[in-house]
Amino acid sequence: MTLEDYLMPGEEIKFQSGDNAVKYGDKPYKLVLTNKRILLYSARGRIVKRDDVVTEKLDELQGVKYREKGLISKSGTIEIQGKTKMQLSGNAAGIRTLYQQIMQFL
Question: Hey, how many other C-beta atoms are within 10 angstroms of the C-beta on 32?
Answer without folding.
Answer: 22
